[in-house]
Every structure is written in C-alpha cells, then in structure tokens.
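REQUEST ID: PR-0412
SUBMITTED BY: lab tech R.K.
PRIORITY: routine
TASK: structure prediction, single protein chain
INPUT:
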Amino acid sequence: ISLIEKHRIVTLTGTGGCGKTRLACEVAAQLVKYFPDDIWFVDLAPIEAEELVITQLMTTLGLSEAPGRDLMDIVVGGMKDKKLLILLDNCEHLIRTCSAISHKLIESVPGLSLLVTSREAFNIKGEKIWLVPSLTLPDPEAAIDVDIAGKSEAVCLFTDRARLNNSGFELVEKNASTVSTICHRVDGIPLAIELVACRTRYMDTFTILNRLSERFDTLPSLDRNTADRHKTIQAAIEWSYNLLSEKEKALFRQLSLFSGGFDLDAAEEVCANEILPKERILDLLSQLVEKSMIQTVYLSGQTMRYKLLETLQRFASNLLVEMDEAVQARKRHLEYFTGIAEQAYQEQFESQLVWLTKLKQENYNLNSALNWAEQNCPEEFSILVGYLFWYWVLVPNFLSGKQYLEKALSKGTKGTEAYARNLCGLGYLAFYFKDRDYVFDLLNKSLSLWNGLKNRFEEAIVLNHLSASHQSISKDMEKAIKHSERCLELARTMDKPGLLNNALGYLCISLVHSKQFDKALPYLDELLPSSISLNQPFWISGARHLKSDCALGVKNFREAEKRYVLGVETALKYGILFNAYADLQGIAFALSGQTRWAKSIRLNAVAIEMFKSIGVEIYGIWPLWDEFMDIYIDGARKTVGEELAKQYEDEGLAMGFESAIKYALDFNKD
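STATUS: complete
OUTPUT:
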C-alpha cells in the first residue's frame, strides 16, 4: 500500500503460483478510499494477441471505439481528470505491449496509478518493482513442534486449506514436522501448498510427503473455477517456460544441475556448450532472473548466488533428461566441482577460511557430484573424495566422509595419487571412531606411496596424522613428537607458510598431550598469532584450546575456564563444531576443579551428547582428555552421588546446546 502511495506504477513479480494476483487484489481492496473514480481489474491471462490488450482495457473500462479515433486516445480521454487505479493482471506474455501502454498512460493521465502483476517487470521509467516472496517457512535446522510450525505462513495456509477439505484436520505434534517438510518441498509457494493440502481429503500428511514427487506436479486442482494455468503446478511452470526464448530454455534446463544454488562462475563453466557460448551466459541468466525463473540470494560480503526453487528445478531436470542433455551436463558439473575441491585442497592451509566458506556454500553441489560420480565415474569419484577429507573433518561430517572414503578405496585404482590421498583421509577420519586399529596401516601405506611419488606436501600431511595417532592410539609420545618435527622440517623446504603452521600445531598437540606444558606454551604463543595472520580457523581455535589445556594441566582452574570460554566463542565463530564441543567439555572440567559440581555435570552431559550427534565417542581418543574426564567428571559424580549426578545430567540435556552455551558463558551462574 505504501508503495502505491509513493509510486504511480508498482509491479508485483514472482514465480508462477506465488500469489501475485491475490496479493494485488487484497491491496486494491484496501485502496478504495484513495481512488474516488474507482479501481479496475483488467485480466490479460486469456489475451493471446498483443493488439488485443488495448481492446481488453477499453472493454473493462466500458469505453467504445469511435470511427477515425485512435484507441489509445479514447482510453486516455476516458480517464482524463479522474483519479483511479487500474490493476493489470498477468502481463508476462504480453510484456512489450503492456509496458508501452503503461508508459503512455502514466505520462498522459496524471490521476492514474497502475498495479501490475507479471512474472517479468516492465523496466520502464517510474516503475517500482516488488518481488512477491514465497510464504515464510519453519527453520529447517530447528526441531519442529506445533508452536514453531504454527508461526510459519506456509504451514498456516496448508492448515487452513486442509481444514476446508477435511474438517477433522488439525495441526498437532504428530504431524507438525511432516507438514513443515511438505511446505519446504514445495518452496512455500501458495499455489503448490493449496494443491497439495486439498489431498488431505483422502490422504494423511505422512502419505502425502512420501508421495510428494513429480507426480504431484500434475495433480489437478479440485476447484473447478481455477484458471487453466493454475490447474496444476506443472501448468503454472509451463506457462512461464513457454514464454522463454530457445537459448533461455536451454540455460534453464542446464541450471537444474545445481543443488543449493550456484554463482556466476559456476554457471559459465558448467552450462557453456555449443548452443550456449560462455560469453552469453550472464545475459541469459539475467533474463531468467527478470522473468522470475531464477532467484537471487545475497550472501555476506555482498556475494550474489542464484537458485531455482525445487519445483522449478524438478521441472527443468526432467526436461534435461528428456532432451538427452543430462549426461554431458553432469560431466561438466563434476569436472567443475572437482576443480574447486582440488584448489581448496592445495590451499587448505594458506587460505583455509576462504575455502572452508566456499565449500560450505557448495556443499549440496559437492554431494550431488559425488553421488553421480559414484554411480557413473568411479575414478573421478575417487579423485573428488580425496580432495574433500580435510573439509569433512572441519565441518564436521565424520560419518559420511568415512563412508565416502571407504567406497573410494574400493573403486579407485591402487597406487595412484587419489588412492594414496584416500588412504590418508580414511586414516584421518577413522581416528575419531572407536574401531581404529587399522589407522596406522592406512597412514603408513599412504606415506609409503607418497614417498615413492616424491610428493613432500602430501608426505607432510600424512606425518601430521601419524603424529596425532601415536599420541592417541599407541600413546608413544616420542614417535608423535618425532613425526611432528619431521613434518616441520619438510614444511620449511616449501613455500607454504600455512603448511608450516599446521606442522607447528601438531607439534603443540604432541607437547601438550605429553604434559610438557611449559615447553608447549612458547610454541602456542607462536601458533596463535601466525594462525590469525594466515586466517586458519582450525588452528586459531586449536591454539586457544591447547592453551586452555595447559592452564587446566597445572590446575589453574579459573584461568582454564576463561580460556575455554574464549575457545567456545572462537570455534562457534568459525563453525569448528568439534572444537566447540571440546571447549564446552573443558569448561566442565575447569568448573569441577573449582568444586562447582552441578554446573560441571550439566555442561559435560551436553558436550557428550553433541559429540554423539556428529558420530564421535570422545572417550578413548586422547589419553590426556580421558584423564581429565576421569578426574573431573567421574570425580564430580562420585562427590554428589549417582542420584544427584543423574538429575544434573538430565537438566543439562534438557537445555540443549544453545542454552548450554549461554549458561557456560555466564561465569557467575551455577
């Protein structure tokens, strides 16, 4: 409403079925008092010929043709000295004529305002464009209950429409999560929600979700008065697709390959082919954005990404297969993201934060490439997996990463670089699981292969993981320190300051876990600033954690608590969740040392639960950490007794992670 007050022409754009017409009508109804000479609704959906637009406008306004008079002059004359609003509905298929007529009318009739609905804006002087968003959806990462689901516009619409078709339908705890997932699957598009919700007349929500695939795209509306273009989701999408040029259609199909969005570089590299020259991709992509077929998303730092709504992506993906374009497109997609993963792997130490952020953005694309390659290109699958193991540790994604690495080793050719890298990767990830007797075998085989391939960079990486494994599994601190020092020696021969810093970090771990706290501190004082300078989140967080361990190791409990708190904040800032959970548990140890038993047991329970959520059994990984757990947590439990300890644990688990963090960061609260 405020836009109409400020601008004489407002265009509501958005994908088919997003509710443009309904919104425009509701807005118009609230503007009656501002337009004393009436509000007119001009439906252009049934008009197929450009020359009939002006005729439809005249018919709606009750104007008649006059011999020898220009039709536009008749329309302008009929509106002269009037204050009125015209709602031009569904202009996308008549965009040139509608924009020309609108421009002429706005110039010629001072009292006229236009409210337009179109999947593509006019882009004329004075036009204010407003993108109609999909309905709000529940947070996909949150645990869904009735209260959370009920705050979502999409869920509210589903519930309302379901009740119209099934008077007994209610949103309850049992179906709240299912309804939320359904609304996510149809992108919060009102038309899609209404078409699906009406099926509650003869189907429960769980069955609807299980069958929510392309077959629902063709389910007809049960409302006989629905316009043909809105009879099915498929019809709404086809209406827009058929308005595209052939090259726009070709790009739209190619873009269906991307999962979770894409940037311009990816579109240019993956979609360019003999039909779509690389230099035309930007222009064509812009046209698809203008026509509401592609959405834009701004990330932090004003980086722009693009995405297809799931319903549009499914439509385009089906066309890609039907037109026999999918295999070649998939190969280009795999090649591009393998290149991204390779560059990230090579620069994982020098530009860790940059690549960690990039790979998180492309996580869905990487998984899509992996899953396709696994079935179709085993060697390429093995190569891509090998470049990602460091990322899976930092994210963390231990279980899936381990499974991918095991598959890659079974599919890949032995003796290759990819095979050697996957041996190292599996050894690294297996380190975090209980069944890890084969870690040394994997790492030593990898080291032997890299020695034969004369690759010092890869050799240094394996040595770091061997160092950690000797600390944890064999508890041979002498070998652990020896491997760390050898890694440092190799790193100094290469122009890779990030690798050198990584080696320094593993040496610090060796010293701290062998209880050489005084010897470790000078190295840690070097590690932290160098990690900050290099933007290495893993070691910024790691250095702070190890300094906390040193304070705890010498029983400076208050200082240890402060340092672990800083460690939690740092790890969460960079998304290093494993370290965040370890620092939270460290706070529990430090509190126990201060005889603050209740808070200690509560926070430890949360930390243990969070480790389990990422597939990690923390006890048994680090001997020093096991010792801390035995002293401070078992000690606290024995002091308060099992009954009270169980009560405190339950209280901690009831908090959840976010509340536990706030609780932990409040130094004075017990």
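NOTES: The two ends are 52 Å apart (CA to CA).
REVIEWED BY: pending
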